Each structure stands twice: as C-alpha cells, then as structure tokens.
C-alpha cells in the first residue's frame, strides 16, 4: 500500500527509505527504463551492460531498458530479449553486478506490437488492428523506415501475446531480476490496445473501455500469477499519444484500468506525466498502492529534475523516476543529495552502440 495516508501532511523526502513489494529501498529515486540498443544481434545482454547498470546501483530501484518477450515483440535492432535460454543466461551477469553493488533491478518487459519491422525481426509486425502508426518511422538494420501496417491479432493470438509477458517474467526471475515492469506506456502493444486509433477491434479486446483495458489486465494478471504480484509493476502514459496511439476518455479509461488492477496487489504503478495534472492527481487518488511518478514528458524538452520530484512527492507520489539525468550521472543519487551540478548526456550517442556515451560518464569529482 502507499506510504501516504489521507491525513498525511508532510511529504516524504526523496532520500528516505521505502518499501517496494518485498524490497527495502534506501531512497525513493528510481532509474527509469531507457532504450540503449547495446545488446548483440542475438539479443544477449553484454558485459558492458552489466557495468552500465552496476554504475547506477545507488538508485533505490533500477528499471531496465525494454526487453522483448518474444521475437515478434522486438521493436528495434540490438535490443535485448528474454525468450531464449541463452538470453536468460546472459542477464545473470547484469543482475549479479547490480546486486554486488548493493542495488535492486526490475526488468521492463516491452512488446513493441506494431512499432516494429520485418527487416528487424523477420516477421510481420502485429497489433490490435491492421492500422499503421501515421507519419512515423522505425529503426531497422538498414536505417529508419516507415512503420509498416501490422497484422491484426486474432482473439486467440491476443490472449497468447498477453501471456508472453508472464513467460518473460519467469525468465527474468530465473536470471536474477528482483521483479518486472510491464511496459504499458508510450504507444507499444499494451498502449495500442488502450488506444482508440490503434485498436479498432469489435471483439472482447476492443470497443468499450472494458474491452480496451482487457489486454493490459490479462497481461498483469498472468504475470502476477507467474512470479507473485509483489514482483510486478506496470508503466502507463495517460493521453501521451506517442507512436500515434491516441486515446479518448483518458480519465475514465485509466481510472477503469487502475480499478481493475488494484485487486491484484501489484508492487507499483509507474505513471508518466503525460496529461494534465488534475487527471494525474485523480489517478493517484484512484490507485491504492505504491505510485512511481516520472515528472517529465518522454523525450520532452525538460528532463525530470529535483524540483519536479519534490512537487510530485507533495502531490502524493511515493517514488520518483529519473530517466535522462541518469545517463550522464551514474552517481545521480549523490548529486541530488548534495545539490551538485548535473552533467548533460550527448543525444548523438544515446543509441550509437559501443561504450562511448554509455560507460564514459563518470561520478562527480570534488
């Protein structure tokens, strides 16, 4: 349950400890999931990835980059997977390195759905409906290409793709992760089912709000049953519209989703600040459990900062996630604690591959 109560008057400090599922976090700072495309062509985690995450183990919790649960779920080249034995084994070096440095790490399970390309996966992309994201391009081995029209999943296939999150979660726990986060945000497969522009279905996975939230609820329910609800979180981005996944009736849609998820006893909901504050505060009130808030719009002009973090702690968030600030500041927790200046990451090497812009950022030198 949330650390806040209806009568609470004093927000917790960013540097207070907090409980999360079965974990005890030394602070309330979460490293948000960020795509880094540093795996190899087989989707294996590498020694450089182990070093990268270990450098940031002072975070209360690390959420990994998105990890595809199956081949058709891969969105970009050189992103890691959790659907083969070799991939599972490769992640043990990462989780071991984080734990050795005193950290905690969840695996983000990310199914790209229609945001994929056959040049990357060898398979036609799938989605709720045969509708392509408009005016969008996706990375492929030969460079950016227009997002293709996906194949609409059958009703049976939709149920099986929902179960793919649970299968990947079992592998994540076997690889040593402390838990998993389902990527329900930013226009990927779960978000596509929530969307009225990407989901034109007339079966039980579409149409009404109850139909559009069904896929997310099934994925979360299956994953909680597979590894335990206290090891499962879900990330959402209400009203973001990213990758052309437009949503209508946003307060009602996400209110219904949180109401359906609440009985599961999940470890947390990870909420992105992608709609108006009134709606977000309403969702805080609707969710009875731990809430992580990322104060910044994904890839917007302003990254999450201390001011935004304190603001959302005042509004009832339990934990605050930082994304871009962690790229160039592996010691972000200490820099925030001591009010030290933050270095800025170079966007040119976000997805460049290799160790430049990945392992080359250093802790603050006094």
TrEMBL record:
One Pfam short name: Oxidored_FMN
Residue intervals of the NADH:flavin oxidoreductase/NADH oxidase N-terminal domain: 14-342
Cited InterPro entries: Aldolase_TIM, OxRdtase_FMN_N, Oye-like
Domain of life: Bacteria
PANTHER family to which the protein is assigned, alphabetical: NADH OXIDOREDUCTASE-RELATED, NADPH DEHYDROGENASE 2-RELATED
Protein name per UniProt: Alkene reductase
Protein's organism: Streptomonospora wellingtoniae
Lineage: Bacteria, Bacillati, Actinomycetota, Actinomycetes, Streptosporangiales
């Amino acid at each position: 349950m949330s650390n806040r109560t209806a009568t609470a008057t004093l927000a917790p400090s960013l540097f207070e400890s907090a409980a999360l599922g079965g974990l005890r976090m030394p602070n309330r700072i979460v490293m948000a999931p960020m795509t880094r495309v540093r795996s190899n062509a087989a989707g294996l985690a590498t020694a450089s990835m182990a070093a990268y995450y270990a450098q940031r183990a002072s975070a209360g919790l690390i959420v990994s980059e998105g990890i595809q649960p199956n081949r058709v779920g891969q969105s970009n080249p050189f992103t890691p997977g959790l659907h083969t034995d070799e991939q599972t084994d490769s992640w043990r070096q990462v989780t071991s390195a984080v734990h050795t440095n005193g950290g905690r790490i969840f695996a983000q399970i990310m199914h790209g759905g229609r945001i994929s390309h056959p040049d990357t996966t060898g398979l036609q992309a799938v989605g709720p409906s045969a509708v392509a994201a408009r005016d969008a391009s996706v990375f492929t081995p030969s460079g950016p290409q227009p997002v293709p029209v996906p194949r609409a999943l059958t009703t049976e296939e939709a149920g099986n793709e929902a179960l793919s999150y649970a299968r990947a979660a079992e592998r994540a726990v076997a690889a040593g992760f402390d838990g998993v986060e389902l990527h329900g945000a930013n226009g990927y497969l779960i978000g596509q089912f929530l969307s009225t522009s990407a989901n034109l279905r007339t079966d039980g996975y579409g149409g009404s709000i109850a139909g559009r939230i069904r896929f997310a609820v099934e994925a979360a329910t299956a994953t909680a049953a597979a590894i335990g609800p206290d090891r499962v979180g879900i990330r959402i981005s209400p009203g973001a519209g990213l990758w052309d996944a437009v949503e209508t009736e946003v307060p009602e849609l996400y209110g219904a989703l949180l109401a359906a998820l609440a009985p599961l006893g999940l470890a947390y909901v990870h909420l992105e600040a992608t709609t108006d504050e009134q709606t977000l505060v309403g969702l805080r009130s609707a969710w009875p459990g731990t809430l992580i808030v990322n104060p910044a719009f994904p890839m917007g002009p302003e990254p999450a900062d201390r001011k935004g973090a304190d603001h959302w702690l005042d509004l009832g968030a339990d934990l605050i996630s930082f994304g871009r600030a962690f790229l160039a500041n592996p010691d972000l927790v200490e820099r925030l604690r001591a009010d030290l200046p933050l270095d800025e990451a170079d966007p040119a090497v976000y997805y460049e591959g290799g160790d430049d812009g990945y392992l080359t950022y250093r802790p603050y030198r006094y």
